[in-house]
């Protein structure tokens, strides 16, 4: 999570020994964050909920918190390097990164993973808020300047958060699910909403309505950056446009970052640069101390 990978060798019972230093040479002279630490909290149902905490390099004093919410929802943040949603890149902007693995995450047992189904905004939402509560009590975190960002199911959760709490300074929703019933009619992964919601919309309409962020759009208040790819066939383009329209029509500060040539992931190098700069600028503007915010 804090360093790009290198080749290593390992014998049984012996710590891994590095073989290459290709990436280390590329990053020489750059202040990289230290290794992530673990944060465990008690969930509402008694489960242990795990998060990674990554601090900026050479942090002195307190820094604002940035909450990252992974997709899936059957997925997980792991201690590994990636080019998309790079935790070290966010930490380098001066944020303490909280990468939460709420209910639905893989790697914590089948029960923990399966309890997300037909409960998309339930236990997982509570897990995230409890984890934020704990993280904001850490001595190097400045409470009250927290933002949250996520993609796919993480984007869904950001949309859900927008309709259920105003505790965050700003939000970033990337290819998030806004209306589950509408997504059902256009996603290429048709089995998925049927499995997650317990059937098609005409059989369980209340389940689709209950867990759709669109149901709670009247509560939107938090400044939100919406990111959407035109070629996203998993969470099609109308989901991001629907979220953005709901924000705009209610006068909520919002911005749309639209990629006509990207799908569910932003993969082209130039687009990736634009994505990072836009997301960084949005979070920086809204997480600044109040007297400096939005200048």
List the main descriptive attributes of the protein structure presented here.
17% strand, Rossmann fold, eight-stranded mixed beta sheet, 295 residues, alpha/beta
- Spans of at least 5 consecutive residues whose pLDDT stays below 50 are none
CATH topology: Rossmann fold
Helix content: 25-40%
CATH class: Alpha Beta
**Structural class, from secondary structure content?**
alpha/beta
Please name the CATH architecture: 3-Layer(aba) Sandwich
Count up the domains.
1
Strand content: 15-25%
- Strand arrangement within the widest β-sheet reads 3-4-6-5-7-8-9-10
Distance between the termini: 32 Å
How are helices and strands ordered from N to C? EEHEEEHEHHEHEHHHEHEH
Query: What's the rounded overall pLDDT mean?
Result: 94
Number of helices: 10
> How would the global form be characterised?
globular
Describe the overall structure:
- It is a single chain.
- This protein has 295 residues and is α/β, with parallel strands linked by helices.
- The chain has a single domain, classed as Rossmann fold (3-Layer(aba) Sandwich), CATH 3.40.50.1820.
- The chain has helices at residues 22-26, 87-92, 110-114, 123-135, 153-162, 180-184, 191-197, 205-210, 237-249, 269-287, and strands spanning 8-9, 17-18, 37-42, 48-54, 65-69, 96-101, 147-151, 170-174, 224-229, 254-259.
- The longest helix is centred in the C-terminal third of the chain and has 19 residues, at 269-287.
- The radius of gyration is 19 Å and the shape is globular.
């Amino acid at each position: 999570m804090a360093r790009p990978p290198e080749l290593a060798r390992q014998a049984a019972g012996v710590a891994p020994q590095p073989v290459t230093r290709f990436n280390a040479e590329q990053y020489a002279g750059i202040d990289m964050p230290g290794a992530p630490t673990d944060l465990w909290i008690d969930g509402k149902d008694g489960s242990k909920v795990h998060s990674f905490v990554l601090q900026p390099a050479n942090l002195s004093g307190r820094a604002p918190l940035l909450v990252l919410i992974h997709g899936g929802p059957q997925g997980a943040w792991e201690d590994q390097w990636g080019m998309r949603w790079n935790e070290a890149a966010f930490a380098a902007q001066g944020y303490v990164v909280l990468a939460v693995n709420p209910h639905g995450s893989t790697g914590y047992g089948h029960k923990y993973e399966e309890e997300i189904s037909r409960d998309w905004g339930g236990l997982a939402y509570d897990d995230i808020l409890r984890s934020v509560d704990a993280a904001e009590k850490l001595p190097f975190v400045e409470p009250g300047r927290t933002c949250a960002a996520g993609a796919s199911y993480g984007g869904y959760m950001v949309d859900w958060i927008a309709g259920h709490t105003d505790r965050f300074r700003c939000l970033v929703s990337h290819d998030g699910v806004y209306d589950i019933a509408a997504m059902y009619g256009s996603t290429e992964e048709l089995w998925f909403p049927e499995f997650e919601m317990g059937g098609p919309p005409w059989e369980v309409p209340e389940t689709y309505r209950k867990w759709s962020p669109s149901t709670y759009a009247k509560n939107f208040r938090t400044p939100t950056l919406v990111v959407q790819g035109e070629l996203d066939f998993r969470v099609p383009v109308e989901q991001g446009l629907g979220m953005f329209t709901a924000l705009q029509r209610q006068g909520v500060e919002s911005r749309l970052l639209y990629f006509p040539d990207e799908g569910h992931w932003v993969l082209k190098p130039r687009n990736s640069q634009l994505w990072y700069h836009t997301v960084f600028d949005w979070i920086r503007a809204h997480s600044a101390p109040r007297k400096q915010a939005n200048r």
